[in-house]
Design brief:
Order of helices and strands: HHHH
Structural class: mainly alpha
Number of helices: 4
Distance between the termini: 14 Å
Low-confidence stretches: none
Number of strands: 0
Mean pLDDT: 77
Helix content: 55-70%
Length: 54
């Protein structure tokens, strides 16, 4: 999860006027291919897709 937070912090610092939706879209564009596989590959701790959505 730290990868996502780092990306969000980085984008927010570089573009303070960027909406939260645009930040999320920018992060999602970095995850090429299958989204769940990309997320699991960037997470250090065990990852549950259900937990991240809730």
């Amino acid at each position: 999860m730290s990868w996502f937070l780092k990306q969000k912090d980085r984008l927010t610092a570089l573009h303070p006027d960027m909406s939260e939706t645009m930040v999320h879209q920018s992060i999602l564009r970095k995850c090429l291919g299958d989204l769940e596989k990309a997320i699991r590959g960037r997470c250090i701790e065990p990852f549950s897709t259900e937990d991240s959505i809730n």
